[in-house]
# Entry
Amino acid sequence: MTMKPASNLPPPPKYEVYDHDDIKDLSCIRIKDGLFEDLEFHFDVIKLEDIDDEGNIPLRYTYTVVKPIERKENDIRKEGTNEEFHEVATSILLDIVGNS
# Structure
């Protein structure tokens, strides 16, 4: 997935980073609010590319969902699209990188 410019992204939802129980040195992210609340995932590959003609540094990544959202009968939240999740994942990634 290629990231959009940061100015076009929503702010990241509340999230927490935790160590995977079964895989050493693997950190996962649990989304704690918003459209994707309770979804857990981790980034697999994060790659910075060369500066493009517009002066941007493209950032590509892949991810794996560790625990999908479990919807209950009375859950009225709309289901998020792949594009909406990619925006959320990108805003979380930029937040993590910016706070490192």
